[in-house]
Amino acid sequence: MTTLAATETHTVRVRLNGRAVEGRATPRMLLTDFLRHELHATGTHVGCEHGVCGACTIRIDGALARSCLAYAVQVDGATIETVESLAPERGRLSVLQTAFQRHHALQCGFCTAGILMSLDTLLGAEPDAGEDRIREVLAGHLCRCTGYQPIIRAALDAAARLREGDADA
Amino acid sequence: MLDACDHRSEDTLRVEDPPLLTGAGAFIDDLGTPPGTLHAAILRAPHAHALIEGIDVGEALTLPGVSAVLTGDDVRRLSRPLMVGVKAPIEAWPLAVGKVRYAGEPVAVVVAESRYVAEDALDLIHVSYRRLPPVMDPERALADDAPALHERLDSNLASERHFRYGDPEAAFARAAHEVAITVRYPRNAVTPIETYGVVAQYDPHEDAYDVLANFQGPFSIHAVLSRALDVPGNRLRLRTPPDSGGSFGIKQGVFPYIVLMALAARVAGAPVKWIEDRLEHLTASVSATNRVATLRAAVEADGRVTALDLDQIEDVGACLRAPEPATLYRMHGNYTGAYAIPNLAIRNRLVMTNKTPTGLNRGFGGPQMYFALERLMRRIALELGLDPLDVIRRNLIPADAFPYTTASGAQYDSGDYQTAVATALEDGGYAALLERREAARAEGRLYGIGLAAVVEPSVSNMGYLSTALTPEERAKAGPKNGAQAAATIDLDPTGAVSVQLDSVPQGQGHRTVAARLVADILGIDPNTVRVIAEFDTAKDAWSIAAGNYSSRFAAASVGAVKIAAERLRDRLARIAATQLNAPAEAVVFEDGRIFAEGNPDNAVPFARVASASHWAPGTLPDGMAEAIRETAFWTPPELAAPTPEDGINSSLCHAFIFDFCGIEIDRTTGQVHVDRYVTMHDCGRVLHAGMVEGQIRGAYANAIGATFYEEYAYGDDGAFLAGTFADYPVPTAMEVSDPLILHIETPSPVTPTGAKGVGEGNCMSTPVCLANGVADALGSEADLVLPLSPARLMPLIGGEEPQPPAGAAPRPEPASGGRTLTGSGSAQVAASPQDVWEMLLDPQTLKSIIPGCHAVEEVAPHIFRADVTLGVGPVKGRYIARVALRDLDPPNSVLLEGEVNGALGTGGGTGHVTLTPAEGGTTLAYRYEAEVGGKVASVGGRLLDGAAKIVIGQFFEALGRQAGGAKPGLLARLFGGRS
Ligand code: FES
Ligand code: FES
Q1: Whether the CB of A142 sits within 6 Å of ligand 2
Q2: Of A93, B199, B475, B810, whose Cβ has the fewest other Cβ atoms within 10 Å?
Q3: How many structural domains comprise chain B?
Q4: How do residues A30-79 score in pLDDT, each as one tens digit?
Q5: Residues of chain A numbered 20-39 and touching chain B (CB < 8 Å)
C-alpha cells in the first residue's frame, strides 16, 4: 500500500470524460474539490459533503459514486465520468437530457448533474427500468425544486425513446 | 388599470436548460475568482447563550497560510449593527460581539490561502465562554424570570401590537358559539441544495465594496448592507451570479455574510471567498419562524364566522433582524383567509429566543397562519356537528364581492372561490373519495379526508412591514409603500434585442418567459432575444423591491418587461411609419418584419428599424427620442401605505387554492400514506403551464417535508439537533406523491399580464390539509404538531405499545438535549499523598497523563486550560477544557470544576478527589457528575459512559505510571469500581 505524506501535494492522474488529465492534491483533498477547483470541471455540484444529497454523483471506473465521500488521491489512475460527458457533442443534448428539458425535470439545475449521472447509468444497465425502479434510484438524490414527478416522467420518456433506438431524441 | 394580455408560452423549452443539463451552469462556486483571492472559514458558537470572556487568535495567526482573523472587536470597529425592523434597543451584528445568542452564531472568521487551511486555523482559536441559561421556548421566554437575551431590553419581548377591525367584541357577545384552538407551529425551512456563497472585495482608495453573492433580494436589504458597512449605497456594488441553486426565500439570509466577508476582505487586504457548508447552512442560515397562535372564532349556528380573535407569539430567534418581523406582517391583510369575516382582533408579540434568527422562507408567514386558521375551521365543524366542507363553503367570500377588501385592509383583486371549489370537487373526484373513506373505515383502517382553503398573496407591498410600528411611529418615519419593478430592454447596433430583469431567478425560468413576452410584442423570434438575469446594483435599473420573493415575477417583473417592450415597439412603429408611409397605429410587427396593416409585402426587416437610432439618428421623426434603450419601472398604485387605522393592502395579487386529500395511517407503524391529493389553483392568467406546474409541484414537495419529516429541532440546552441531511430529512422521490393539479383562471385586473403569483401556495395549504386528514383519520381533535412523525402519531392512535420480548435489552433512553454522567472509583498509587498532590497540580505532569492532551496551561492560580482530543464512539473531536481546583485541602482532598468545549459538543461537571495514605502509597478516590450536550450527547448513554470510564481509567493509569508504577492488579479495580 502506498503511503502519502499528509502535508505534501501529490500528482493525481485520471481519465476524465475521455481525456487524460492530472492535477495536484494533498491526501485530504476531497474528490469534489479536486474535480471542481483543480480540474475545473464544475458541472459536478456539492450540496452536503456528507453523502446524502447526491448532487456530487459521478462514475468512477464505471460505477456510481458520491465524489464528496472520496479523496482525490484515491482515484489516481481511475476513469472518471461526470455530467460533462453526457452530451454526444458540444451544442447537442443526449436523449435523457432532452427529455429533462421537455418535461421540466429541472428548475435551478443544482441537483441535476448527479441525477443525470444516476439515471444515465440506470438506463444503460437496465433499459427496461420502469417507474418503480426509476423512483428507487432517484430516491438517492435530493431535489428541492421539482417535486420529482417531472424527473420520473422524463426518465420514462427517455427510456422509451432509447429502447426505440432514438439516439438523438 | 392595465389591460390583461395573452402572452402564454405553453410549451416553450427553457433557454436556461441546456447549460444546466451539460454541467455548464454558472453558480457562484463555479465562477473564477479575482487573482489573489483568499478563502474564509467561520468559527461558530458551541453554546446557545454565553458571554464571550476572551478570544485568543494568536495561535491561529501563526499557522502558515493564514492571513487574518476577524473577531467581534473588528466587526464593531469597522461596521455598524444591522438594522432592526422595530423600535427596540436590539443590536444585531453579523458576528457575535461580546455574547453568543444561538448555537452556530459566527464568533470569528479566518481568512487563509485555502478553505482547508482556514478550517485548520479554526481549531487554533481559543474562546472562553461563560455559559448562561438558554431560553428556547417562546412562551417561557416571556416569563418574568426568563433571562433576557439583549441587555438593553429587560425582557425578550421585542414588540407588541394590538389591532382591532370592525367590532369583534360585539360579534363575540352576539355569537351562538365560540370555538378556539391553540397551534404550535415548529421551525423548518425549504433549505436549498446550493448553500450560501460570497466573494467580496474592498477598494481602500474609494472606500468601496464589490460583492458577488447568491443573494435573492429584496434589494431593500442593499440599504441595510451599505448602512452596516458605513458607506453610501453607491460604494457597495452587489452582484449576483448567473445561476443560483434554489432559494425559496432562504438566500435572502446570506446578507449578514455579505457584511462579514466584505469586512474580512478589508482586513485581509485581498478578495475573500466563502462558501457555506451544509452543517452551517442547516444550523445557522435562516429558518422560518416558529409560532404559538391562539385563535378564537365567534360562530353562528350554521357555522358562519362573524369574528376572529388571534393571539400570536412569533419566535424570531436570537435577534430581530431585517427583514423581520416580515414573516408575521406579510400576511397582515390576509388573516381572515378566504373568508368573509368582517370583525377581527389581533395581538402580535415578537419574542426572542436562543435560536437562529429567522427570515424569508417559501410561504413566508402563510404556513404558520393557515395551519391555525384551517385547523380552526375544521374544529368549528366538529364542535357544531357540521360537515367541514360546508363550513368552508358557507364562509367563502362571495364571487360577486370582488374586488373585496378584508377586515384588515387587503384588496382581493379577483376570484371565484365557489366555482373553484365546485370544480375541484367535481374534477378531483370528491364523491368517490368519500366512498373510499367509508370502505376503508368499514375494514377498520385509519382513513381520513382533509380540506384547506387558502388565499395566496403575491407581490408584497414594501410598506406592510411598517404595520409593525404604531401609527404615530409610522407618521414620524414617513410613509412606506409600493413595489417598484424594473426592466430594461436594449436594441444594439445590429438590431438585436436584450432584456435585463430585476427578478434574480433561482430556477424559475424567468429568462424564458421574458424572452417570449418581448418577442411576442416585437414580432420577432424568441430565440433571438437575450435575457440577462444576473444582477448588478451598479449598472442595472433597480429599486428596493427587486429580487425573487413573494412570487413577484409573473405579476410584477413581467409587467415591467411588458411596459418597456410596448414603449419600444411604439417608438419603432413611429420610425417605421415614415418609411412605410403609413400611420404609426397601423404598423404591424410580425415574423421579424415590420409592415403596414394589410400590406405585408411591403415590409422592412425588424433589425433595420431597430438599429436605425444607432446608425441614422438624423432620420428619426421630429422630436422623437431614440429607440435604443427603454427602462420601465412599474409600481402598482394599489399598494398604499398602512392607513391610520392600520388597514394594509399587504400584497397586490391574491390567488386562491382549494385542496383536499385522502390519507391513511398505518396502525402498526404510525406512518401516513397520502392516498390522494387534489390541489385547485386560481392564479389568474397562466403564463407558462409547465412552469406553473413546476412551482406547484415544488411547493407541494416542500410541504410534504414540513408536514411529515422536517424540523429544525433544538435540545433544551440550546444545542441544534438537525445539522445534517440525516437529521433533517428532506423528502425524496419515495416520499413525495403525485398531486392532481387543477386550474381555473380569473385574471387579475391589477397586473399588466393578468397573472398572479403561484410559487408559495402549497406551502400554505398542504401541511394543514394533510393535518386535517390525519385528524379525520384519528377521529380525534388532539392538537397536532408538525412534523407528523410516527413517534408523534403512535400515542394518538392508541392501543398498548407491545412489550419488548422477554430478555431483550432495555430500550435506549430517548434522545434529549443533554445527558448526565455520574461515576466513582478509586485507584492505588505508589507515591505519598503529598507527591500525588503535587503531580495533580503541575501542568507538565497533567499534560503527560491526561489522555489525548496536547497542552496544559495554568491560566490563573489553580485554573488550568487543557487542549485535548477525545473520541466518543464515532465522534472524535478536539476540545478545550477549563478546570478550576477549589476547596483545596492539601494533601487530602480537592474539588474540580470543569467545562469542556468543542465543535462537536460541550460538557461541564464537578469531580471530588480524596487522597488517603495506604500501605505502599496512596489511595485516590474520586466521584464525578457531568452534563454533556451537543452532537456528542446524541451518541447514546452507554457509549458515553464507556468513553468516560476509559478516559478516566487512562488518566489514573498514567498517574500511577508517572508516580513510579501502580501496583499490578489494583488498576483493574478502576474498571470495576464505578457505580
Ligand atoms: S455533496 Fe455529495 S452527496 Fe451531497
Ligand atoms: S432543480 Fe433545483 S434542486 Fe433540483
Answers
A1: no
A2: B810
A3: 4
A4: 999 999 999 999 999 999 999 999 999 999 999 999 999 999 999 999 99
A5: 26, 28-29, 36
Nearest CA to B458 out of B367, B329, B549 is that of: B549
Statement to judge: residues B198 and B177 lie in one domain:
no
> Are residues B427 and B540 both part of a single domain?
no
Residue B802 lies in a domain: no
Q: For residue B105, give its domain range.
A: 17-132+192-284
Do residues B504 and B535 touch, judged by C-beta distance below 8 A? yes
Within 13 Å of residue B201, how many CA atoms lie on the same side as its CB? 14
Of B284, B306, B331, the one marking the end of a domain is B284
Q: Give, for B447, the enclosing helix (H) or strand (E).
A: strand B446-460
Is the separation of the CB atoms in B359 and B249 below 8 Å? yes
Minimal Cβ distance to A106: which of B17, B192, B278 = B17
Does any CB of chain B come closer than 8 Å to the CB of residue A161? no
Can you give the pLDDT at residue B940?
58
Instruction: Judge contact between B680 and B428, C-beta under 8 A.
Output: yes
CA-based nearest residue in chain B for residue A90:
B22
Give the Å distance between the CA of B450 and the centre of ligand 2.
29
The CATH number given to A10-85 is 3.10.20.30
**In Å, how far is A120's CA from the nearest CA of chain B?**
12
B827: nearest Cα among B948, B627, B967: B967
- Name every residue whose Cβ is closer than 8 Å to that of residue B451 and which is 6 or more positions away in sequence: B374, B378, B388, B389, B392, B658, B659, B660, B769, B772
Contact B364, B327 (CB under 8 A): yes
Whether residues B232 and B356 share a domain: the answer is: no
In a domain, B150, yes or no: no
Closest CA to B614 of B491, B490, B493: B493
Q: Name the β-bridge partners of B927.
A: B824, B912
Q: B21 and A48: CB-CB below 8 Å?
A: no
Give the ligand whose atoms come closest to the C-alpha of residue A114.
1
Q: How many CB pairs below 8 A link A and B?
A: 170
Please answer yes or no on whether B698 and A26 come within 8 Å at the CB atom.
no
Q: What is the pLDDT of residues B892-903, one digit of tens each?
A: 888 888 777 776
Of B21, B244, B700, the CB nearest to A101: B21
Q: Is there a contact between B102 and B83 (Cβ–Cβ < 8 Å)?
A: no
Pocket-testing residue among A106, A116, A117, ligand 2, by greatest number of atoms within 8 A of Cβ = A106
Look up the CATH architecture of domain A95-163: Orthogonal Bundle (1.10)
Residue identified by cell 451537543 is B934
Provide the residue ranges of all domains of chain A, joining segments of one domain with +. 10-85, 95-163
> From CA A29, how far away is CA A16, in angstroms rounded?
17
Share of chain A above pLDDT 90, in %: 92
* Rounded Cα distance, B944 and B405, in Å: 60
B719 plus B743 within the same structural domain: yes
Q: Are strands B497-501 and B530-532 parallel, antiparallel or unpaired?
A: parallel
How many percent of chain B have pLDDT more than 70? 93
Amino acid occupying residue B152: R
Percent of chain B clearing pLDDT 90 (strictly above): 73
Domain-embedded: residue B586: yes
